[in-house]
Amino acid sequence: IHLRQFEGTEYASSPRTIPNPDAIVT
Questions:
Q1: Residues in contact with 19: Cβ distance below 8 Å, sequence separation at least 6, in sequence order
Q2: Where is this region: Disordered (predicted)?
Q3: What is the pLDDT of residue 16?
Q4: Which residue range forms the structural domain that includes residue 15?
Q5: pTM above 0.70, yes or no
Q6: pLDDT digits (tens, 9 = 90+) for 9-23
Q7: What is the domain count for the chain?
């Protein structure tokens, strides 16, 4: 997995840390 490649997409895939739904769109 990419490390902070896409701050949102990757984060969404990782239940570890989910900032905000906006990040997922970004």
A1: 7, 8, 11
A2: 1-26
A3: 58
A4: 1-26
A5: no
A6: 555 455 555 566 665
A7: 1
